[in-house]
Design a protein that fits this description.
Layout (H helix, E strand, L loop, with lengths): L7 H21 L9 H11 L4 E9 L9 E7 L6 E3 L5 E4 L3 E7 L2 E2 L1 H15 L8 E3 L2 E3 L8 E6 L1 E2 L2 H8 L7 E4 L3 E7 L5 E6 L5 H16 L7 H8 L11
Parallel strand pairs: 1-4, 5-9, 6-10, 9-11
Antiparallel strand pairs: 1-2, 2-5, 3-4, 7-8, 11-12, 12-13
Length: 247
Amino acid sequence: MTTRKMSIKSMFKTKQAVLESKLSILLDHPVTKGEHCESAWIDFFRSFLPNKYVVDKGFVFDAQGNVSDQIDIIIYDALYTPLIFGTEAGEKFITAESVYAVFDSKPSIDKGTLEYTNAKISSVANLVRSSRGMIIGGKAVPPRELTHIIGGILAIDSVEPETIERHLANNPYIDIGCAIKRTAFICYRDEESIVKEAKFSSSDESILAFFYIVLDLLYQLGTVAGLDIRDYADATVDSIDLIREER
């Protein structure tokens, strides 16, 4: 009996070539040139993320009525997301508590796009989020701490990694990024968001490295905190008060 082996690396090289080709075509098209290529990146994330995660574009909102900037790619929880609103354009309005990660899609990564992306991510990270205790296996567990919202930038090309690293110091909401033709990177920060270290992949492994970076960070987050639906009820319904005895 012959044992077959597959090359994960070769499969991702193919995926990288397909994604690069798709984005290049979109950027060269007169209608889409200069616009975000979020649809290609959304398809990429959907192709490997488990069903626990949903990937869409849209806006993030909180119980106080605050709404983020328009976000190109939002990765959010499929279970603890009871309030989702959609538009005819395919955009979603997603509760802040449900979000794992947000990304901005750009043609290239440079000083200007890093600053622009950082501002967009901050519009999500600074929303008000609740955390409620849950019932797991029939047992009540207390509210968990709010998880960090991963922020990233996505592109075809970029400036040199050294230049990216230098600008990351002034853009504290950006954790990871991928420039298909150049590199994938992850930025490690201390509790005060000061850059401790930034690591960059080689150009021929950008998609493969980014794949593992994303999955590892999501694994570290586990599951988002349970949304407290009573906060949204209080903000939208005047005729009923839901019980809050656990507080």
